[in-house]
Amino acid sequence: MTHASTLPAPAVHEPGDEDRAPAAPSRRGLPAVVYALGLFVLARLVGVLVLAGTARANGKHPLALLGRSWDSLWYLGIAAHGYVRAQHFRPTVVHSDLAFFPLYPGLVRAVTAVTPLGGGAAGLLVSWLAALTAACGIYAIGARLHGRAVGTALVLLWGLLPHSVVLSLAYTEPVLTAFAAWSLYAVLTGRWLWAGTLAALAGLSRPNGFAVAAAVLAAAACEVWRRRGRKVPHSLWTGAALAPLGWCGYVLWVGRRQGDPLGGYFEVQRLWGSRFDFGAGALRFVKHLLLRGDRFVFPMSLVIVAAAVLLYALLIADRAPLPLLVHSGVLLLVALGGAGFFECKPRFLLPAFPLLLPLARALVRTARARPWHAVLVVGALAGLSFAYGAYLVVIAHTPL
């Protein structure tokens, strides 16, 4: 098991015997990370094909659904026109584009400026490249902690989550996960400047991007405590100072624009129906589901969030490194404690990939002992992911 210290030793961690698996790809001369990326791309490609077939069968255009669904339209509007849009439904319900963080629309605008691509295609290009970058970072963390086989399994499981269809849409989760994964890897390898810089960029990606800064700050504090009485490198202090700048900078900018530097951004979110109420709103909605039922997407979201809680308990039991625990814990806390848009909670947990580490290790052990059992498990997960993803985007008609 991985020790619960903030940073592993500089040398690559040697996995336990239970995590070792035959390195078939390496015997063929194929780097393990390429094999992992190939599985991820195959999983997402099949998912997109299933979605496209479902869309065609329902008289809808697949590329329009991929590039211009729900929040994608807000981001594309920001990329094209800046922060100018607000929809007033009633005094207590105002949807302003200030709720959306600027990094993703900035990247989309840059792509449209240097290529002939339109907004939707540019958004998909950014998201798909970010998803590949995230998959590389996820593999790097899994391989460092438990070996290449677990790294590969971790990437595959992330690509087969029930909500992984979002990784194929013009959404921000792939961008956040890419910065989060490489920031966490930088922490694990003692590269504090990289960790802080990437955490700052993660904070510019999404409202819950501050989870990455929280992980960097917690790891830095633990390292300072471990070094008490000894010199702390300047890079650690600098990285820790950089980590929260992206998220705090945007929140303060919105607040100043709204006339309330500290509370303006949170007022924008409140008018969207999003606020942190320590789970009171979520509990009310769970009560509604249990007593009255609702559309399939809502109980499915409840099951996914409950599974995430269980996986976090397993991650703690496995004594995962502190940065991974803090990152996943903050994301889980935001999903559990936030009010509004219950059906979006599984999407908010997509960047919490460390939750899949216990499953990845179990899958590798199963693959060694009973290969066909592992094949059946992966096949079942793939079927659920592809079918549910197509249902979410084409049929459900609920916010993603």
Description of the molecule:
The protein has 400 residues and is mainly α. The protein is built from 19 helices and 4 strands. The strands form 2 sheets. The chain has a two-stranded antiparallel sheet. Strand 1 and strand 2 form a beta hairpin. Helix 2 runs parallel beside helix 7. The protein starts with 23 loop residues before the first helix and ends in a 5-residue tail after the last helix.
Pick out its properties.
400 residues; mainly alpha; two-stranded antiparallel ribbon; 19 helices; 4 strands; disordered N terminus
**Fraction of residues in β-strands:** under 5%
What gross morphology would you assign?
Answer: globular
Proportion of helical residues: 55-70%
Strand line-up of the largest beta sheet:
1-2
Work out the helix count. Answer: 19
**Rg from C-alpha positions?**
21 Å
- Report the average pLDDT across residues: 89
Q: What are the segments in which pLDDT stays under 50 over at least 5 consecutive residues?
A: 1-6, 8-18, 20-29
